[in-house]
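Dear colleagues,

As part of the handover before I leave the project, I'm documenting each prediction I ran so the next person doesn't have to rerun anything. This entry is a single chain, and its sequence is reproduced below.
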Amino acid sequence: MVSKPVHGLPLLPGFTFVDPTKTAFPRNQTLSFKNGYACSRVPAVGLGKEPIHVNQLSQTDLDELANKIPTLTYEEPRQTPLADFIPAHVAFDKKVLRFYSIWDDTDSMFGESRTYIIHYYLADDTVEVREVHERNDGRDPFPVLLKRQRLPKVLKDNSKHFPRCVLEVSDADVKEWFTAKDFAVGQTVSMLGRTFFIYDCDKFTRDFYQDKFGFPEFPVIDVSKKPPPVIKQELPPYNGFGFIEDSAQNCFALIPKTPRKDVIKMLIDDHKVLRYTASLESPIPEDKGRRFIISYFLATDMVTIFEPPVRNSGFFGGKYLTKTKIAKPGSCVDNPSYYGPGDFYIGALIEVFGHRFIIQDADEYVLKYLECHADDYPQETILSLKKHFSRQGPSMTQEPASGQAEDTKDKEDKDKENKDEMEMLIKQIQERLKGSNFLIEGPIREAFEILDKERTGFVDKEKFFGICKTFNLPVDDCLINQLIRMCTHGEGRIKYYDFVRALSQ
């Protein structure tokens, strides 16, 4: 037994420390450490056992001492307690990732691009695909394409043991399920045989991927339908039937309509005809002496060709080309360029469906018309006509002359004519023809001029009535018959100038 107590050791069972001097005077023991904890030596009470508040420990100090974990070198450190476990169905309840996708089925027959919404439920990792309907889209209003379920991503290959067509997929047959990592903007997801392209998502989905996986902010991909390129409408090739304007109407409507005409031009240029004399360019000797009259109708831009009949020439004469438009050689078939008044100058070569005509002469009215519309036609054509008429000498509007004996007789006959009666008769004939809508089909004046080679202004009576029969002129009319009698000079000769003037205006 120890006789002296050792300072700082507690009273342990089995050990006694007897101090005979202090047995009668017991005292409380004040220790600085106890069980590894520091103890304060500052007295807590004063005189009269009143507590000393300054020397007392506060509640904060007591909490720190109670919660303080000593650092022990002879034991393993204590692990930090685990956080409270919260299951997924509680933590992610009512939290859904929403993706906007498109299914492009345009490669198949009658396929189209359709939009869908993919929902991924974080609570139980299930997937749902909903259809997006538009007004009058022709689809049945089924809201859901794929009901909410866990979607397998990779399956085990059990086709060797059991046919896949009747295989019911269970959890044991699935290697991998679809998770949130499999869905992202700009990626394609294949679900149950359909490939969906994800082009957008909502704000909650963007924040979830950025916080959970550290993905950058997803871009918005434009998948809107671009308008198709504008295709220039072109007419099919010309088939050769009718005019091009008529054939083009079959491409504009199921029931073709008559092409529109320039009514203003037809009213202004009605009954205005430009006449030319032409010869045929041909290596055949019999064609050298043939003469043709080309008439250009300003109202419709059409051309007719007439060959005056010549006795014992071997050619019947008459209408050589009916009224039609003549395209220039080398022009496009689908958009041809037609001959116009500016192309008919003296010496011009006009190709008409493989036949070539050379302009030899023109009517004086052609020069007057071109001079009045000089801004619309080339100056070379006008100058060509002026030079031609200047070389011809006196105008045909004046009375031509032949021999001296005939000139004297013509002058005597002309003095005897009653000019006032002639003009009145011509006016009456013009009014009657205008009221009956009579139109001469062909250049009658040029026909008389070809027969009048000497430019006398007279033709034989037999030839005169032959031309009237060719042009179907109503010679049986009383007024026209009277005009013929007034234009008759001598025996068997008729002055055709006044007769043509009465019928052409």
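Residues 334 and 496 are 45 Å apart (CA to CA). The two ends are 169 Å apart (CA to CA).

All the best with the project,
I.
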